[in-house]
Amino acid sequence: MATFDVVNAQGQKIRAIELDDSVFSADIKEHVLWEVVKQQLAARRQGTHSTLHRGEVRGGGKKPYRQKGTGQARQGSSRAPNHAGGAKVFSPKPRDYEYSLPKKVKQAALRSALSLRAKEKKLIILEDVNFEAPKTKQALALLGALGSNKALLVASGESTALAKSMRNLASAKYLAVEGLNTYDILKHPSLILTEKTAKAIESRLSLRSAS
Fold first, then answer.
1. CA geometry: angle at 83 spanning 82 and 84, to 5°?
2. Run of H or E residues at 16
3. Mean pLDDT, the chain, integer
4. Which residues of 160-170 are buried (b: 16+ CB within 10 A; e: fewer)?
5. What are the Cα distances from residue 27, in Å, to 18, 30, 168?
6. For helices 195-205 and 103-119, angle between their N-to-C axes, nearest 10 degrees
7. In sequence order, which residues have a C-beta less than 8 Å from that of residue 102 and are 6 or more positions away?
8. So what's the architecture of 2-29+101-210 in CATH?
9. 134-157, pLDDT tens digit by residue?
């Protein structure tokens, strides 16, 4: 079992916690990280690009010049792809770039991302915390005390005031534990988990429970 310090809102160690090695000290599989990040970014693409193919370009019904006798290559339309203002060859059309990956691959990527942050000493376990009211200034003070102004903070979905306090921060992000994903972990230099959240993630991804 891997041991981590649990800190309070002032960044002071208050106790230690043991977490499953298979989740927080797993082998870092870079290729799996790459595959999952690529899949997440593909799913975010709008896919609204569109250009005109030959059947959609207006005009060009008449031959630009006669078939023979000009010394030039024969042309059937001024809207052919080889003419200025013409159509596009293999024109892109709106499409969905999203595709799926096996659940086990996504889980392996999460284990690798969590283990990477733990190995880098960029994983902070915070005692369960929630604000009485949404205050961006209080969120900044919390991140400053933890020494992680550019961080992903993952807490339970019940922490509504904490979530609202962080939504105006440009360099930090709040995420409910249900939405934890590989891309957001890798995008932010530091990862902050509440103690309750860390246990929930361990329960969800542990290979021991799977077996």
1. 130
2. strand 13-19
3. 91
4. ebbbbbbeebe
5. 18, 9, 35
6. 140
7. none
8. 3-Layer(aba) Sandwich (3.40)
9. 999 999 999 999 998 899 999 987
Contact (CB, 8 A) for 128 and 194: yes
The token pair at 35 is 């595959």
Cross-strand partners of 175: 154
Domain boundaries, the chain: 2-29+101-210, 46-96
Q: Is 152 exposed, middle or buried (0-12, 13-18, 19+ CB in 10 A)?
A: buried
Neighbours of 65 (CB within 10 A): 12
pTM listed for this prediction: 0.83
Sign of the torsion angle spanned by Cα atoms 138, 142, 147, 149: negative
- Report the alpha-carbon distance of residue 88 to residue 106 in Å, rounded: 38
Helix, strand, or coil (residue 191): strand
SS3 1: coil
